[in-house]
Specification:
alpha/beta; Amidase signature (AS) enzymes; 2 domains; two-stranded antiparallel sheet; 15 strands
């Protein structure tokens, strides 16, 4: 199989071909570099392409294979990362004008080092919303990332470049971050798989923080097995991230074949029924039917969970940026700057109340997981809106701002750090992807990935994007 064809097949096929010497890592890297040059101008997914480094890393993989060594489960797999991950030799942009002026990073982020140790080859940095405070993928400094299914549509944010690069088959694997939905939203809009792990499961060392008590990192891929391979490669405690828990690695790739067997699955109703379009709910119903999940349950106080997430996000992010805002306010995207300034003014009693509610909500969610193992919910209330959308949409009998509604269904689960896989679940009437969240209890990534694999086997697969 040609290197070009392997890029379309994904990580598992690439690693198998490279390890067996049926293809070279260099040929795969060269094919990816050529594809980025041809397709990225229309998408604006990459902000930095590390071609020379990628070829050097690919040569090292091929040399290891020639010596009879095993380079790892991701041997020769090209990947790229949201540009808030430190990449040795590059300034860490974090989607900002200010960040690109910082000194080049002297070391890769820990997650990059772990993927490299598994044999993967780094291709560069990816576009994102400024400082990750974004659900649209529209960056004021680098321009918007465009959805591969329709370049007039949002790719989602803030990890829009990561999702678009994978959906457009520029790379088979990418990393992003998720604070309130920034992996799950773009995965849903772009029709691919995305994993937000349990808070504290994967190290964030070497990434630019947004909201330290809510930030997660995780992978995007076009298949569940590719997603699981990347997740397994990044597991393990890291002293460089104080939130990273001392949990033993729990590999899941070899357990995907168990599917949904033995797992108790329910769909979420209540606020999730009321706040989604009929198309988004139909996607959930289709997943539930494929899994033979007939039970519907409600979680309490979902609107308050969203409000608590917003208050904590605004307050922590505003405090983090306040000193810089005093001296360089005009170098921020005005919309991002205003959110940070508003966050810095949030009264302390509000934050304390939000944190108290957070603990209460976590306890209620854990009570729910005594009776079920998996919850199903829409990833977004609707398919990807047009870039620049500033109007309203009718949801639950009322008009709500489009941009504010994008993350309605993702933030409650970030608030309490649950592992979630976003699964492509069909298309809207306009042909745009729709996504469904597979939500598990803390530290039960295996459950979410097994259910995602069961859905994939039932036909809920990556939505192919045009490549012309």
């Amino acid at each position: 199989m040609s290197a070009e064809a392997l890029l379309d097949q994904g990580s598992v096929a690439i690693a198998k071909a490279v390890r067996s010497r049926a293809a070279s890592a260099v040929a795969v890297a060269e094919a990816a570099i050529a594809r980025i040059a041809a397709r990225n101008p229309a998408l604006n997914a990459f902000t930095d392409v590390t071609a020379d480094r990628a070829l050097a890393e690919a040569r090292a993989v091929d040399a290891a294979v020639a010596r009879g060594e095993d380079p790892g489960p991701l041997a020769g797999v090209p990947f790229a990362v949201k540009n808030l991950f430190d990449i040795r030799g590059l300034a860490t942009r974090a989607g900002s004008l200010i960040g690109r002026e910082s000194p080049p990073a002297v070391r890769d982020a820990a997650a990059i080092r772990r993927l490299r140790a598994a044999g993967a080859v780094l291709l560069g940095g990816l576009n994102m919303g400024e400082y990750a405070y974004d659900f649209t993928g529209e960056n004021a400094h680098d321009g918007p990332t465009r959805n591969p299914h329709d370049p007039s549509r949002m790719a989602g944010g803030s990890s829009g470049g990561s999702a678009a690069a994978v959906a457009a088959r520029l790379v088979p694997l990418a990393l992003g971050s998720d604070t309130n939905g920034s992996i799950r939203v773009p995965a849903a809009f772009c029709g691919i798989f995305g994993l937000k792990p349990t808070f504290g499961r994967l190290t964030r060392a070497g990434t630019v923080p947004f909201v330290a008590s809510l930030d997660h990192v995780g992978p995007f891929a076009r298949s569940v097995r590719d997603l699981a391979l990347a997740y397994d490669a990044m597991q393990g405690w890291d002293a460089g991230d104080p939130a990273c828990r001392r949990k033993a690695a729990e590999p899941v790739t070899d357990r995907l074949g168990l599917g949904a067997a033995g797992l108790r699955i329910a769909r979420l109703g209540g606020a999730f029924d009321e706040g989604a379009t009929a198309e988004a709910m139909a996607a959930v119903e289709a997943c539930a039917a494929a899994l033979r999940a007939t039970r519907s349950i409600d979680l309490p106080e979902i609107p308050r969970a969203r409000a608590a997430a917003q208050i904590i996000t605004a307050a922590e992010a505003g405090a983090l940026h306040l000193d810089r805002l005093r001296t360089r306010a005009l170098d921020y995207d005005p919309a991002t700057r205003d959110r940070f300034l508003a966050g810095a003014l949030v009264p302390a009693p509000w934050v304390f109340a939000a944190q108290r509610f957070r603990r209460w909500f976590f306890e209620r969610v854990m009570e729910t997981f005594r009776d079920v193992d998996i919850l199903l919910a829409p990833a977004t209330p609707f398919a990807a809106p047009p870039i620049g959308s500033a109007g309203t949409i009718r949801l639950g009998g009322r008009e709500v701002p489009v941009r504010a509604a994008i993350g309605l269904f993702t933030s409650p689960f970030s608030l309490v750090g649950l592992p979630v896989v976003s699964v492509p679940a069909g298309r809207s009437a306009e042909g745009l992807p729709l996504g469904v969240q597979i939500i598990a209890a803390p530290w039960r990534e295996e459950h979410a990935l097994r259910v995602a694999a069961a859905l994939e086997a039932a036909g809920f697969v990556c939505c192919p994007a045009p490549t012309g």
